[in-house]
Amino acid sequence: MFFYLTKILFRICLVCLLVLCFSICNSQHSKSPSTQLWDDSSFTIHGRLMLCNGNPGCRIWIIGTNHLLGVNENYGDRGENPDMPDSLKNLLEWGTFIYGDFTVHPTSKYRRGEMQYVRVLSFSHLFVKKY
Predict the structure, then answer these.
(1) How far apart are CA 63 and CA 68, in angstroms?
(2) Residues 7-21 pLDDT 10s
(3) Helix (H) or strand (E) holding 34
(4) For residues 8-36, average pLDDT
(5) Which of 52, 72, 109, 114 could staple 83 via S-S, CB 3.0–4.6 A?
(6) pLDDT over 70 for what percent of the chain?
(7) Phi, psi (5° rounding) for residue 98?
């Protein structure tokens, strides 16, 4: 009987230890882009910027996902004007993909299966590819 109770206590302690280790490891992870899409704060993603037909005309595909971010457009005297730094706008043209790290700020809520609207705050590590 004593041996049986010791065995049960050992198993209970082992399960508690595993649960504790899992919760500690889980709490130390930094936010990933997929969880940041829910926040209202700025975040950086690695993606492909491109011009597209439709609204919005400028989109960012987050590499490794099926998620598209639509870049807000300001309509002024010159027509469509994507909400991004001018130096990045100058690189945009039809038939060009721009790969890089983009810091974006969401302007709409994340909804599964829908494009989320953002404005591009900054960028780095750009690679321009003609197709």
Answers:
(1) 9
(2) 777 777 666 665 655
(3) helix 33-36
(4) 58
(5) 72
(6) 69
(7) -120, 110
